[in-house]
Every structure is written in structure tokens, then in C-alpha cells.
């Protein structure tokens, strides 16, 4: 009976009901849609960081992270290889790298770069470079003099595929080592700074140039079961001697992205609260207006021995039905908006410099988290009923004489 009466009452004034529903729908839509965009920014930042030569876990010689010099390379990594073979779960991939600072130059230009010596087949499975070549070809083990450079560096050096590029760095004997490489391919990255910073050569070529023997700078690991696998991380720390090796998770290697993830949930709560406050004022004002318009009706009910609790419950049921209708429409509109952007995303190429500075991808794709949707709906429903208590209590406290005398 209460549901039937409440449903009829909320449509007695369609214009007022439409106003409340519009406020609720817009509020719920903004919570879900903008929340998905913020979550998408976080997912894109983490994915971009992990793909850009970070992986989920990295292993270095002790001291390398503080001073990434050639002296802190892993000259003997057999213990690491054994630990990885024993500990990594099925599907996990890993690759060895030589990684040092270098200077690239040609006849007219020179620039500081990061020289990365890679095992081409292994590296293709754990970082962006395997699918990033836009011109020319990917590296092969047979091409010992091949080099991959970024599109931005190619344009800066005014060169092209097939031409030579000379790299200079310090070798293990503290001497300047240099070697000429031929550009075999050009890669594109999410951020222009990556295209300018990294150049890729076969690992054997980098080791020979730097007189490293079989030494490497780091081992990057990509797990198959998602970003969070503390078990593998802890097992590796226990298996490898701490006085020789350092193990870092992606959270330690990507401090900016980690900090963003930490504040994201708090920011979402704050955003939901701001949206609800704006929406709550509309709910309270409109509900109070509806109560005063029906004051004589409530007075007649109380004169017919209707208890105050019944009137309070009647007003709350009306608010509940309005909120549920608004939630259904708001959720539908929010998910339709997310679906519409799921294919193309939001292109930030026009703001590339600012997005790159923050570590954001050029294109943002919405990402829906179940907890965000649940919190948004519960916030609107529970707090909506809470703010509706005031007009409901006010309606239940009028005496029949006061209500019937109201004009």
C-alpha cells in the first residue's frame, strides 16, 4: 500500500518530480562517468609506465639504482637465472638488458640518450618496443650493428632509416667507447620524451662495445597474473642475497604513478561528496516544498488517527522511489557514455606536453571499477534518504489543527 500510494504521489506534480529526477540522474552520471575517466587515467599511467621498460619487477646489482654506472653492472647473474627459473609462475616473462647513459651523434647533431642493449625476442614480449616500430624493421640478433631510435630523435637529428649513428659511452675500463650503428627501424611511443631518450641495440653489440663480457645492467620481469603479486616479489628477495642484488616492484620504480593511485580513492570520495552536496540541496528544497503543499492532506490523515511514523514512512518511501528511478537512469546514462568512449577514448594530443609531464597516455580510455559504481550508488541512495529525513520529520510533527489551518 505504501509503495502504491508513494508512486501515485510522486507523479501528482510531474514537473517537480522531473526536477528531482534530473538532479539525481546528472549527479549519478557524473559520479560514474567522471569516476571512470579518473580511473582510466590511473590505469593508463600505470600501464604506460610498466610497458616503458619497467615491467612488474626489476633486479639490479646493489647500488645500481642510486648510481646507474657501468661499474654497478651484474657481471655474474647465474644465481639470478636459477632463482627466476625456480620462482616465476607459468606465463611470466623476463629479459636481460644492458642500460647505460650515452651520447648519440651524427655529422650535424649530438644528444644525450640512454643506450639499451636488448635480447630482441625476449624484449618484444615484456615492453612496448616489440610493437612500436613504425618505420623500418625490428632488431634481430644477426644484425649486430643495427639500432632502433625514436621518431622524435630521428627528426631532431634530421636523419632516416639506413643512415649511421655513432654512440659513445664509458666502458668497464673507464675509457670512452664508441661504435657506429646503422638505423634499421624507428619506433613511436606514448610520450615524445621516450622517443628522444632511448635507443635500442642488440645486447651482444652493447656488451662488446662496453667490454662487459656477459654482464648486464638489469633484469625486467613481466608477470602474467596482473600487477599485484607480492608473493613472487617476496620470494625473490628471500632467494637472492641482499648484499649483491636489489629487487624492486613497479610501485617502487614508478613513484609518481604510485602516489596518484594512493590519492585517487580519497579524491573519488571527495568528488562524490561534492556532487551529492549539490544534488542534496535540490532534493531537500523540492521535498520540503512538496510537504508544505500537502500539509492539509497530512493534517487530515492525522485527524483520522494516522500515526506520525506512518507519515514519516510515506515521505521516505516517496524519496526512495525517486532516488531509485534516478539511480537507474543515471547508471544507464553513465554506462552508455563509457561505452561510447570505450573504442575511441579521449584524445589529448593537443595537450600532449602537459599530459606527458604528468605521465599520462595521449588517449584516455574510461575504466570502470565495481567499487566506484557501488560507492556512487550507495552514496546517493543512503545520503539521499538521510537528507529526506528532515522534510519527513517536519511533515510528521504537524498537529491536525496546525495542518488544517494552513493555507
Q: Quote the distance from N terminus to C terminus.
A: 28 Å
Number of strands: 12
Radius of gyration based on Cα positions: 31 Å
Unreliably modeled segments? none
- Report strand order across the widest sheet: 2-3-8-5-7-6
The helical percent reads: 40-55%
Largest sheet: 6 strands, mixed, barrel
Number of helical elements: 15
**Looking at the chains present, what oligomeric state does this protein adopt?**
single chain
Beta-sheet strand percentage? 15-25%
In N-to-C order, the SSE pattern is HHEHEEHEEHEEHEHEHEHHHHEHEHH
Quick one: overall form? elongated
Averaged pLDDT = 83
Classify the secondary structure makeup into a structural class: alpha+beta
Task: Give a topology summary.
Blueprint: H1 2-10, H2 14-51, E1 57-61, H3 78-87, E2 93-105, E3 110-118, H4 120-124, E4 133-136, E5 146-150, H5 151-156, E6 164-170, E7 176-187, H6 192-197, E8 198-202, H7 203-210, E9 218-222, H8 230-239, E10 245-249, H9 250-253, H10 255-293, H11 295-303, H12 308-342, E11 346-347, H13 352-357, E12 363-364, H14 370-397, H15 400-405
Parallel strand pairs: 3-8, 5-7
Antiparallel strand pairs: 1-9, 1-10, 2-3, 2-6, 2-9, 4-7, 5-8, 6-7, 11-12
Helix pairs in contact: 1-12, 2-10, 2-12, 2-14, 10-14, 12-14
Description:
With 407 residues, the chain is of the alpha+beta class. 54% of the residues lie in helices and 18% in strands. It has 15 helices and twelve strands. It has a six-stranded mixed beta barrel. It has a two-stranded antiparallel ribbon with strand order 11-12. A hairpin with a 4-residue loop joins strand 2 (93-105) and strand 3 (110-118).
